[in-house]
Each structure stands twice: as structure tokens, then as C-alpha cells.
Amino acid sequence: MRDAVIVLPRALKHGLPEDDIQCAWHNAKAIRRRNFDIPCIYAAAGPDEAGNLVELLLAEQEDGDFIVYHAMKLTRKMANELDL
User: Fold this and answer.
1) Does this model's pTM top 0.85?
2) Bridge partners of 10?
3) Residue span of the structural domain in which 36 resides
4) Which of 28, 33, 39, 45 has its CA 20 to 30 A from that of 77?
């Protein structure tokens, strides 16, 4: 499930570089499916290259690819959702 993902430009708006987003996904500490519709939406959190926790929102496409559309420093709200 943790293959490379497509990072949309809007996921970069909080200043995280794409390498940190990829790192957070590949090293995710928590992943939670938010719905059972298509596309499936996932919330995840993992460390960036410096070890800072990053929150991600991803959409799983019908072909199995994942698209990151949100990435930023982990918030308390997301940490609570992921039981971190």
C-alpha cells in the first residue's frame, strides 16, 4: 500500500517539499481509511526526512494509485483522529 504516490501541487501549499511528503507516506506511523466510497480517502501521519510528523490526506484511485492532496505539520486534530 505504500508505493510511490502522486503529490498534487496543492499539497505543497504549506511549504513541505515533495521529498518530505513521500518520506512521511513511506514511513507512516498511522493510516486510517475515512470512507468506503470511490475514491477511498485515507488520513495518514508519518515523519518527514528530519523526523517531524506530517499529516497527509490521500485519495486512492480505481487503478490503485494514491494521490496526496493535503500535507502539513501534524495537527492535534489529526493526531487525535489517528490515535497518536
Assistant:
1) yes
2) none
3) 6-81
4) 39
